[in-house]
Amino acid sequence: MMECADARTAGIPGLFIRIEPTTQRQLYFSVTGKPYRDDKSANFSSMPDDYLQKHVVGVPVSGLSLIRSAMNGVVNPNSLSSTVNWTFVFKNRTYQPQEARAEIGLPEGAVISQMTLWPGGEPKNARFNASGTAANSYGSNVVAGHDAPAIVTDLGRGRTLLHCYPVPAQGEMKIRLAVTIPLKLHSLTDASLSLPRFIDNNFTIAADNQLSMRSPEELNMNLKDVRTATSPTGDKLLTGVIKEEDLSGAGLSIRVARKPSLEPVAVRDPFIRELCYIIQTIKKVEAPPPSQLVVVVDGSQSVKAHSKEIQAALSKLPKNMVTSVILASDQGGDVPEVLKLGEGIKRLESTNLTGGQDNLQSVVKAAELAGQAKGGNVLWIHGPQPSFNNEIYIMAPYVSHPKFYELALDNGVMDANEFFKNHREIGPIQPIARSGKVGDDLERFIAKWQPGGTDLQVEYAIRTDYKGPVINPAQSAEIACLVANSEVQKMLHEGKVRTAAATAVSHHIVSSVSLASVLPGAYNRGDTQISADRGELNTHYTHPTPESIVSNNANQTQVASFPEEPPVVQTTDSRWNSHSNELQGATNGTIAPQGADATYITGVNTSGTVRVNNLANLEALLNCLCNLSELVCLVYGGYLLLTSIFAIANGGTKTADGKVKDTPSAFTRLACGVMVVMFGLMIPGTMNWFVASARDCNLFS
């Protein structure tokens, strides 16, 4: 891990043989099956503050722990929406304030719609503001520092970054996130609710997570410590505990029963000043099987525990469908081998799934095969994948662009955009909804390809002239937030950053152009008004057409365009916009504040504190001393070499009385000269090695 972080930690061999960090990271992934993450051991003193604010979580800070955690909420199967309130209580056992940071994975389509902090026991709701490029347009960017006790920002790809400071010395801090989550509709009577999870955090989890969910219909969860009950009012309850390993795993889901109704559901958008209604309808559509299906199965050890389930599910694919299997494993040689379905299942059974296997070449091969005819599909079943791969493979042009599906067995640590950065022809990749065992999820997905199979599609119509009944405000807010979140993504894809930020802020959602922050001082009641000198971000949809339709199936949601103002900020490609805009406004510890001591960065490393400026000054001083010592050794060693060479050429070294010394003394001087020169050349590299080792030794603390 030290060599992954800094090549200078390779020791004496590294002085003569170049050590490539990319090679070391590949070795680390191949051995452990886990991708190497920079924020665990990188040199923070050389990173820009902006990167630290937006990316770094850091390894656990000693003495900082999550001592209580609870999820409670309401599931509304009729509107296919839910709200999960995730509450944390952090405990700081050290004698100085600490910073709690966590990267949280959200289910597909979910969005954070509120944050509440209890400083001094009094609740304060978060305020929503624009961030990034959109904030610059309004002049309303929130300072991403310790002036805000709690901030949550969007990292893209269903990830959010939570920052809480200060967790008081020998004290506790309580904070709650409200997450609005859509239900995945599998049939008219069956849906699933995926729960948020931890991807990374800088605190230890000292207690199990308490679960309490309520619904008018039956709820079920495949965990032994979770039980069902009925409340006095007749609602169905799901209560119990979720273990730490499940909370940070591949994701948990709740099975939700619902009445088999195709009746439309109408809600009024409560965030809009003028009347605006969202009409939700469910339609059955045909699901024709693909003309060719190419299944890529990861050969890593992370898939080993699910191998039997995957084999059983794949064996139920329709026999009349052309299906190929590629096992992404280095045991098959350099070129991925394409097998028929039966052969692929047998190969999966006999192959030893071990270590970490890079799936890039196999997925590229599968995309090439599936794109040879109209209606091709690629199904990728995989665990964690590395982010170091810079390989570029040649792909033949598609005859027809295939569809891509993935069944991810990791906790969301893989960045698909980064993984396929050199192969933009691959995608978009639609995730398969997780709601239980891997085999059950896979069987449910491929069931629609059986003869006569159908798929369910949810559509939304935006209207202003609706006169019918509407459901209660709580469900209205949930649907409005989910639809607005999808609309924001579409606006960003079109480069309408300013309008996207206005929509996100007015609907109280965290997106790539908006953040939620609890500000000190006066109470925050969740209002989104920004002071007059910064402009107003409240917005509303003006006269949407009755024909504006959005569709949502089990894998992806697409929202029709709301009327909006012309874009202020234009961008060229949303895939790159997501990197440049989505992380703006993220927060970190005290990092290089203007007019203050910029010595410390807290919460982003093992010990919790790095003396950045002092280390930089010490390293500069050592470099000067090393360079001076190297110069002295080179001059003195060169003098010894020259004098010994001339002495050997003249037959020896003469004394003061004209006698000639023995020749071996000249060879001794020659050897000493060589050693002095080599010692001088080794001084800078050796010192760099010691400095890098000292910096990165916190990996093992």
Polypeptide structure, described:
This protein has 15 helices and 32 strands. The chain has 701 residues and is of the alpha+beta class. The strands form 6 sheets. Strands 1, 2, 4, 5, 9, 13, 14, 16 and 17 form a 9-stranded mixed sheet that branches. Strands 6-28-7-8-3-12 form a 6-stranded antiparallel sheet. A 6-stranded mixed sheet has the order 23-22-21-24-25-26, with helices on both faces.
Q: Strands, helices and their partners?
A:
Blueprint: H1 2-5, H2 21-32, H3 49-55, E1 64-76, E2 81-92, E3 98-105, E4 111-117, E5 124-125, E6 127-130, H4 132-138, E7 150-156, E8 159-167, E9 171-182, E10 184-187, E11 190-194, E12 197-201, E13 204-205, E14 209-215, E15 219-220, E16 226-230, E17 236-242, H5 244-247, E18 253-257, E19 265-268, E20 277-286, E21 292-298, H6 307-314, E22 322-328, E23 338-340, H7 341-350, H8 360-370, E24 376-382, E25 403-408, H9 416-419, E26 429-431, H10 438-446, E27 454-463, H11 473-493, H12 497-506, E28 514-518, E29 548-552, E30 557-558, H13 574-581, E31 600-602, E32 609-611, H14 612-649, H15 663-696
Parallel strand pairs: 1-13, 1-14, 21-22, 21-24, 24-25, 25-26
Antiparallel strand pairs: 1-2, 2-9, 3-8, 3-12, 4-5, 4-9, 6-28, 7-8, 7-28, 10-11, 11-18, 14-17, 15-18, 16-17, 19-20, 20-27, 22-23, 27-29, 29-30, 31-32
Give a quick summary of the entry.
With 701 residues, this protein is α+β, with helices and mostly antiparallel strands. The protein contains 15 helices and 32 strands. Strands 1, 2, 4, 5, 9, 13, 14, 16 and 17 form a 9-stranded mixed β-sheet that branches.
